[in-house]
Amino acid sequence: MHSSPASLAELQARSQALAGLTLGQIAAQLQLQVPANLQKDKGWVGQLLEQSLGASAGSKAEPDFPHLGVELKTLPIDRDGKPLESTYVCVAPLTNVGGLHWHDSWVCRKLQHVLWIPILAERQIPLSERMVGTAFLWQPNVQQQQELQQDWEELMEQITLGGVANIRGAQGKHLQLRPKAANSRALTDAVGAHGEPIKTLPRGFYLKATFTASLLAQQFAPG
DNA sequence: GTATGATCATGA
DNA sequence: TCATGATCATAC
What Gene3D superfamilies does UniProt report for this protein, alphabetically (predicted)? Predict the structure, then answer.
């Protein structure tokens, strides 16, 4: 168990020291048991790395490293370095979204500074043998910021106009809106097509795998 | 239910 | 084959 890193440099040094270690090795350092699989422990890898790097624990609506303003995200990849999954960002507000602007949104704030930690996580590899890659800090460049903002504004407009039920995951260039719920019976409040209150599945914002793939390419491009 | 952490599993 | 839609655990 680590204390909280004092600086970005310390966070980078710690995260890069994990490169090449397996999840089993990191768990052993922390004296933690590795679950047989992730079916009932889907968040285990993220929580393991949070502990290892000294992120603030628990379910708080703030960055993993509050004093650094950095969010930690694991990124499962295959042997070719391609993301295996989309990346969850945050839940989407479905009511009272009238005056909300991009720069005040959770999506924008959460993505301002992210520590990405790639994990070689093909399903055939036992959990304890999966290997941590080279972590890197990322901040969206101007183009990325603009494209994310455009996706967000389109999705939020549709929610505002009562069209949440018609939003599919395929919509959006980089940012998508998909269910984020315990199960299909967990409903929340939203607005219907005629302005009437409805119940619907809670939604979350996710980064498409093609977008995180471009971040990896940008980071690890040869030359 | 909402927040945290995501991956599972199946339809296209 | 793979992205979308569905789901799992836990704290509060």
Answer: DNA mismatch repair MutH/Restriction endonuclease, type II
